[in-house]
Specification:
Elements (H helix, E strand, L loop, with lengths): L7 H11 L16 H19 L3 H7 L2 E2 L5 E2 L4 H11 L17 H14 L1 H20 L2 H13 L3 E5 L15 E4 L5 E11 L9 E7 L12 E6 L1 E3 L5 E4 L2 E6 L10 E14 L5 H37 L23 H33 L3 H36 L11 H9 L8 H12 L2 H22 L2 H27 L4 H36 L5 H17 L3 H10 L3 H4 L3 H4 L4
Parallel strand pairs: 3-6
Antiparallel strand pairs: 1-2, 4-5, 5-11, 6-7, 7-11, 8-9, 10-11
Helix pairs in contact: 1-2, 1-9, 2-5, 5-6, 5-8, 5-9, 6-7, 6-8, 8-9, 8-10, 8-11, 9-10, 9-15, 9-16, 10-11, 10-12, 10-13, 10-15, 12-15, 13-14, 13-15, 14-15, 14-17, 15-16, 15-17
This protein binds flavin-adenine dinucleotide (FAD).
Flavin-adenine dinucleotide (FAD) binds next to strand 3, strand 5 and helix 12.
Length: about 600
Amino acid sequence: MPTYTAPTRDTRFIVNEMLDLASYGNLPGFESATPDMIDTVINEAGKFCGEVLAPLNQVGDVQGCTHHEDGSVTTPEGFKEGYRSYVESGWGTISAPEEFGGQGLPHVLGFVVEEYMSTANQAFAMYPGLTTGATSALLAKGSDEQKQMYVPKMISGEWSGTMNLTEPHCGTDLGMIRTKAEPQADGSYSITGTKIFISAGEHDLTSNIIHLVLAKTPGAPDSSKGISLFVVPKFILDENGDPGERNGVTCGSIEKKMGIHGNATCVLNYDGAKGWLVGEENKGLAAMFIMMNAARLGVGLQGLAQAEVSYQNAVTYALDRRQGRALTGPKDPEEKADPIFVHPDVRRMLMDAKVFNEGMRALCLWGALQVDLTHKAQTEEERQLADDLIGLMTPVIKGYGTDKGYDIANNMQQVYGGHGYVREWGMEQFVRDSRIAMIYEGTNGVQAMDLCGRKLASKGGRAVQAFFAMIDEEIESAKQVDELKGLAEKLEKALAEQKAATMWFMQNAMQNPNHLGAGAHHYMHMMGIVTLGLMWLKMARVAVEALKGSPEDAAFYEAKLTSANYYAERFLPDAGALRRKLEAGSENMMALGEEAFATAA
Ligand SMILES: Cc1cc2nc3c(=O)[nH]c(=O)nc-3n(C[C@H](O)[C@H](O)[C@H](O)COP(=O)(O)OP(=O)(O)OC[C@H]3O[C@@H](n4cnc5c(N)ncnc54)[C@H](O)[C@@H]3O)c2cc1C
């Protein structure tokens, strides 16, 4: 059975040393994040996820959820107890606002918990994960009354939340939504329509489920400009604010799917269900984007999560499994064979995983800090910079992070040879579970278009210019440090490729928008590679400084430097190849007519 140990040492390194969270102590919420508090959150969350959630991962996969004739859904064995324990420990409250029962701690710490939960058990973590997204939309766009009615119990975990966008005929193109919302005399709306693929849409973990639903009011524009957002509770609240009358929303079926079996993916039928408008009419998509942006970062974490858990198990296996001899001569001459860990090709896969995971963890937590700074930084200029950077990075964290997360999980399965392909070792589950993250919350193709079609050009390119300036600054300062000069120069080269690609888009995409569509995936990966390069440069800088003090765990910091160099030599050069693909434009890609794709008999 696979195991999971939360990487608490690495998290502490990023939070305390790389991000230096203590230096933000003057900002609201950060003052409570004392070193002791940070340690407690990291260690206790790690323990909870390793001991309570990870053991439920395989059983969740094998049993899956069960849909009953009356529309109810039961989650796999142990999920209810695990969820109760999650609520009692207050893990959902970490970074939620204090006025609604949260602890008001930085998002950085909330992200640590989210990473550990997704890594231990992605299917389980999605129940509270969707609740967090729904809560953030209500907090941003809900009326005061709606916030008071729903948010405290969603934060505590007593109730859960969902997001209802997708319909059978529309996923990416939400302008085509058909679900109707008819205004009623009492100020509510009657919601009718069918939503599909709704994660956590029905289950037995909470006493109420708060659905956030996109629908169209009569006469609304027939496009994405005519979508409104509604809150539709499974049980309508009574005069005391408790779940009362059953609302007209039922689960018609649950999907049989490739992975995340422990999470119910539901068809939800709305049959005159009572709902209430959230925010303004026809502004629903903007409200939903608040929820989706939070959720997209969470999905990026899922990429890291499956890469991390599969890596941990692959390392154990590679140290144990004996096949062949080291190319440089037997390592264990008394045994019949050496551990496969000695083979450079196995090491290639493990090193790729190690440097991606540590770099991605740094990027996700750095991203979480930008989310905090967007709201809490002291000056408008700092808040705007953080907002620009996290806006630019969200599709990269989601798109690049999950593309790579899947690749890594796949490679970790490869480390097991044939044993990775059979169920017993659990590796094939990690690959299956990781696959969905490339699809939901907007496919990765859509993330790439969001980055290249919207974010790059937005506000005259302000965000991407700020991004380049931030990396230039880090490179210039690293070049002054002997141990970092080589790393900085390699990052500089990769960054130059990205700047050139950006320029190419500017010069060519206007005259032929297909050029943008054809290169968007490559550009998103290039940006992911460069950004992880920045994270590795930051981590290397901390390691160089720490080693000057001859720390007890010098090996940890030395490994960081070796890994940074590995990243610089083996990941950064890909930026050049990606730029050349991008600059090949779209003609080749779009040249063949439909008939050329037909298979000849
Ligand atoms: C397990 C699971 C859980 C889910 N959970 C939820 C949930 O909780 N709530 C919810 O509302 N939805 C949920 N979804 C739906 C999910 O978000 C959609 O499947 C996804 O957005 C893609 O929509 P689609 O499946 O209709 O694909 P389509 O939109 O039909 O896309 C098909 C392909 O075309 C590409 N494509 C489409 N349009 C463009 C374009 N303009 N430019 C470039 N490429 C394009 C896509 O990238 C994709 O490769 C879930 C789906 C699954 C499978």
